[in-house]
Design a protein that fits this description.
heterodimer, A: about 20% strand, globular, B: alpha+beta, six-stranded mixed beta sheet, five-stranded mixed beta sheet
């Protein structure tokens, strides 16, 4: 249970305040409603490149990190398909510095040529390190365009191609900034041993004068319903064969989201889960297997990933996996198994509230997708999922025609 | 409000007073100490059981690691499946980890389920049976995982570097080959467990909301056990590492090379350890470090570069590590040595030193905030027979270390000829 207050400035910036007196640290999270799904198909990787540029200095602050480190603070950021999220922690007594830093770079980023040049190279190294120089690193570069043909989820956050980043110009990034980095496109959360009144004052003082811009209307092409199975077979320099299956599922705010999440837990959360006990332990067909949901805001994916035990044929492994998928579609789960996954959810939620930074992040995210109140409502939505819901959603999602399979084979 | 001047940085106050929650210490009937850290807002508890059963104590490679990993794969009363079912049903997590010195069994649970899950933990700690069929599965799967991990230059660099500085036969340096997995047997594990998981060495750290009845519950499950065996004497024939200081381990077709530069040092009980921490932070311990500023932010050679000092029971080491684009690897290596030179020849400017100190104190504040961080920090002390007074020394040393001392430490410990350099890549 997370108590909080919420208010909005005249320029549209939403602010959420959560008091936690158990910690001397304040967490500030600022979420911008822009992700890789908002990119131009010929200029992908921008949201992520931009995240890097946000640290290159703003109008009044040449280096973001220096004053923050001097104040005993630490920060980081991440970009995904849906959002770009910046967060920091700082000793409570230096909280105003955080407002100064974040408001300045929302107001006016410096955009030096040198900053763009360096961060371009850094991102290119990141591309290599994470996607190209690792075994199985390019899975998502292959699976995304297989599953999505129209919707921008077809490319990854790092970009469709390294050349898009290589060719990014200063003009391009300035336009991106103007379009998305505005107070009415952002959510600010502050959590720690703080009072609402002081946050109201600080937010108004530092963010109040930032001009809002017309909110960007998101008009993304809908992914048409997939009508038949898709397959892709690749060979790579890896030691073991693996298989990836992606099924389309509902969006984050759909009521079936929770049922779908529980299905992934029944299949693969913990060592007593179905896939682990049957396919890893009993049949010894996979050395590792996992089922999870993407958590995307628009219609996302239900994903299976598995590494085959050496010597096992792809046919045998896939058949066994398909058997488990059929099982959950045909046979109602028993009460104990349902209770188990609901207990796991309860535990996960309780653990998610340990840390002041996690709370700040989650509050911002829930405010974006719906309303921050949802953070406290989810536990009962999960608890209301029935055995019948599970059968219904399993049959809708695990339809063969809805499936994209990637066979990733050792050379 | 038009009145604000964004040009003026808001005042900051340095992290001055740091409050410690001293743990309450109790003992079980058999002498196992229980350190209780009452902290946080959530009705959960993290219970960590520490044993002196890491790699240091094994004769054959991988035995310590498998003994630990196999603890929950079958016990006197329960099969692996039953253990998993019980732990999962209550939404709890039972983690098994081990390192070069220690082995850990860590339980995370909601307080309301503690009594339900502890009997399972008792079985896991004191009555594991290491079933052969489960072992076969574990060996097969972990060997595959190892083979995949060996494809990553960053892992090869880490393993090969330890071999380089500690030597091939040293428990801290021994390099694993995939075939080593096939030489692990049930008897090895039974033997290792009996001769290394001792009540007399065991420590328990409890963090979170501590139930009033925690002690009686723990005593019930763990307080009646006593040691049946003694530790085997380990006849170690430790060969000193060779004189080869610069090594290139070829990994074909790598787009990036992983590099490690550093040397063997000492552990946290050494008088210079804490001061060296300050030097380490300046070099590569935070985002604004010398190495990050030069090699990532100025030259864009890498996505990340950093340094660390590592403490172990019987030694320690310092290293700089990074993954760097193949074409610019040598340039980056040259820059690393240049940065070390600068630290040896020029005093760190006052403003930078103050920034590092402030950063370290802020970082320290985070490291004792909340049950998980606090228990990690405390574990790192209790394993060396230290307590929170050590952390007070840390704070003082950070505040007092001056630029002269930093320069001397760089000269004393980072002499180029004493460093080992390893490159893994094409």
């Amino acid at each position: 249970m997370i108590d909080f207050d919420k208010f909005e400035l005249n320029n549209g910036l939403k602010v959420i305040v959560h008091q936690d007196t158990s910690t001397p640290i304040v967490a500030m999270n600022i979420l911008y409603d822009v992700g890789s799904r908002d990119e131009d198909p010929d200029k992908t990787g921008f949201a992520h490149l931009f995240e890097h540029l946000m640290f290159g200095g703003s109008e009044n602050i040449p280096k973001y990190d220096v004053p923050l480190e001097n104040a005993g603070g630490e920060n980081n950021a991440f970009t995904n398909n849906d959002i770009t999220n910046y967060y920091l922690t700082i000793p409570k007594q230096n909280m105003e510095l955080a407002f100064w830093l974040e408001s300045d770079r929302m107001l006016q980023l410096a955009f030096s040529e040198k900053s763009l040049e360096v961060q371009r190279n850094v991102v290119i190294e990141e591309f290599k390190q994470s996607y190209l120089n690792q075994p199985y690193g390019d899975i998502w570069l292959l699976l995304r365009p297989l599953a999505y043909k129209l919707h921008p989820y077809q490319w990854t956050t790092i970009g469709k191609d390294i050349s898009h980043i290589e060719n990014a110009t200063r003009k391009d990034v300035k336009a991106f900034y103007r379009k998305f980095y505005n107070p009415n496109n952002a959510i600010l959360t502050v959590a720690g041993d703080i009072e609402l009144k002081e946050i109201e004052k600080l937010a108004q003082k530092w963010f109040g004068s930032i001009e809002s811009f017309p909110k960007h209307e998101r008009n993304l092409p809908l992914e048409p319903k997939q009508l038949e199975q898709r397959h892709l077979r690749v060979k790579r320099n890896v030691p073991f064969d693996s298989i990836y299956k992606a099924y389309h599922m509902c969006k984050r705010t759909d009521e079936d989201y929770y049922t779908t999440d529980l299905i992934s837990d029944i299949l693969s959360n913990g060592n007593s889960s179905r896939l682990h006990s049957k396919l890893v332990k009993e049949k010894r067909l996979f050395s590792k297997i996992n089922a999870y949901i993407s958590g995307d805001i628009d219609n996302g994916l239900f994903i299976f990933t598995g590494k085959l035990v050496k010597g096992v044929s792809m046919e045998e492994a896939e058949e066994a996996l398909n058997d488990e998928i059929e099982n959950i579609k045909l046979h109602e789960i028993n009460g104990i198994e349902l209770e188990k996954v609901k207990n796991k959810i309860e535990s996960t939620i309780e653990f998610s509230e340990v840390n002041v930074l996690d709370k700040a992040m989650n509050l911002a995210y829930f405010e974006l997708i719906s309303d921050a109140d949802l953070i406290n409502e989810e536990i009962s939505i999960y608890n209301n999922v029935s055995k019948q819901n599970i059968i219904k959603v399993a049959n809708e999602v695990f339809n063969n025609n809805n499936c994209s399979t990637l066979y990733y084979l050792a050379n | 409000m038009k009145g604000i001047n964004r040009n003026i940085q808001p005042n900051i106050n340095l992290v001055d007073r740091i409050d410690f929650n001293q743990p309450e210490i109790s003992t079980l009937d058999n002498g196992i100490p229980v350190y209780q850290l009452q902290t946080g807002t959530q009705d959960i508890v993290k219970l960590e059981f520490i044993f002196e059963a890491g790699n240091w104590f094994e004769e054959k490679k991988l035995v310590a690691w498998f003994t630990n990993k196999m603890l929950k794969e079958g016990t006197r009363k329960y099969s692996a499946g039953q253990i998993a079912e019980k732990i999962d049903y209550y939404g709890a997590h039972l983690e098994l980890t081990s390192d070069k010195d220690m082995a850990y069994v860590t339980l995370y649970t909601l307080n309301k389920h503690l009594s339900d899950v502890l009997p399972v933990v008792e079985e896991v700690l004191f009555h594991p049976t290491f079933p052969e069929n489960e072992l076969a599965i574990k060996i097969q799967n972990k060997k595959q995982e190892y083979i995949v991990n060996s494809e990553k230059v960053r892992n090869l660099a880490r393993w090969k570097f330890n071999e380089l500085i500690f030597g091939e036969t040293h428990p801290y340096g021994r390099f694993i080959n995939p075939d080593d997995y096939n030489a692990v047997y049930q008897d090895d594990l039974i033997d290792f467990h009996q001769h290394n998981y001792f009540v007399k060495d065991c420590k328990i750290i409890a963090a979170g909301k501590i139930r009033k009845d925690l002690l009686p519950i723990l005593n019930n499950c763990f307080g009646t056990y006593s040691d049946q065996f003694e530790r085997n004497t380990n006849n170690r024939n430790l060969i000193e590492p060779g004189n080869l200081h610069i090594v290139h381990f070829i990994k074909e077709n790598a787009l990036q090379s992983a590099i490690r530069i550093g040397k063997k040092l000492f552990n946290k009980k050494h008088p210079d350890f804490l001061k060296l921490n300050v030097l380490n932070t300046i070099i590569g311990g935070y985002f604004g470090s010398r190495l990050m500023t030069n090699i990532r932010e100025d030259k864009g050679y890498t996505y990340g570069i950093g340094s660390a000092i590592v403490s172990m029971q019987h030694s320690g080491y310092f290293f700089i590590a990074s993954e760097i684009g193949t074409e610019v690897t040598q340039n980056a290596i040259d820059e690393i040595y240049r940065e070390i030179d600068v630290l040896q020849n020029e005093k760190v400017p006052e403003s930078e030193l103050n920034l590092v100190k402030n950063y370290m104190l802020g970082s320290f504040l985070r490291s004792i905030d909340g049950p998980f961080a606090l228990s990690e920090s405390f574990k790192g002390l209790v394993e060396y027979g230290l307590d929170f007074n050590y952390l007070k020394s840390f704070v003082n040393i950070v505040k007092q270390t001056n630029a002269d001392e930093i320069q001397l430490l760089a000269q004393r410990y980072l002499d180029r000829n004493s460093l080992f350099e390893l490159k893994v890549g094409s």
